[in-house]
Every structure is written in structure tokens, then in C-alpha cells.
Task: inverse folding
């Protein structure tokens, strides 16, 4: 079954509970969208697809942080003039998390 990552098998929670092993097999090839009372509740996906999506999100998120004008403003500070945007972002993150 070759499908697009955005194609999903839609199933109710009741159907999912009664046929769990079948939907675990389906999830190896395509996401399974689980609904409750017609509303989307959860998505079951292949762990490989999850890891890929997670890595893409981290990479995109890091790029967004680095292109932020906020990071560029801090380059005017004397102690950060020779540091990269990544170094500045890491220092700001550490200060925010641990104080300092």
C-alpha cells in the first residue's frame, strides 16, 4: 500500500478498539485517524514516519529561531558580536531555563 503521508484511514474509537491489531498493521503504511463522536481525537502513525516528522519540525523550528530579528538585535551586544546566531540562541535558552 503506497500512500501519501496526508492520506489517513478514518476510524471511530469503537471500531479501533474492536480491531486494534488490524489498525496497527494499517498504521505501518498509512496514518490511522481515530475519531470520537465524529471529532478527530488521535492519530496512529508508523514510528519511522513520526521520527521523520519530528526531525523536520525541529529543523524548521531551529531555522525560524535563527532567522528571527530578535536574535539579530542581540548581535549588537558587545559580548555577542563575534558569536553566531546559534551560539546566541543557545545562551538565551540557557538563561531562560536556568536563570542567570
Result:
Amino acid at each position: 500500500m503506497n500512500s501519501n503521508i496526508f492520506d489517513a484511514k478514518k476510524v471511530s474509537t469503537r471500531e479501533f478498539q474492536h480491531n486494534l491489531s488490524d489498525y496497527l498493521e494499517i498504521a505501518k503504511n498509512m496514518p490511522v485517524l481515530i475519531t470520537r463522536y465524529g471529532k478527530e481525537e488521535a492519530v496512529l502513525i508508523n514510528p519511522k514516519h513520526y521520527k521523520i516528522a519530528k526531525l523536520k519540525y525541529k529543523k524548521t523550528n531551529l531555522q525560524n529561531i535563527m532567522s528571527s530579528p530578535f536574535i539579530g538585535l542581540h548581535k549588537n551586544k558587545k559580548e555577542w558580536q563575534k558569536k553566531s546566531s546559534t551560539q546566541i540562541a543557545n545562551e538565551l535558552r540557557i538563561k531562560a531555563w536556568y536563570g542567570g
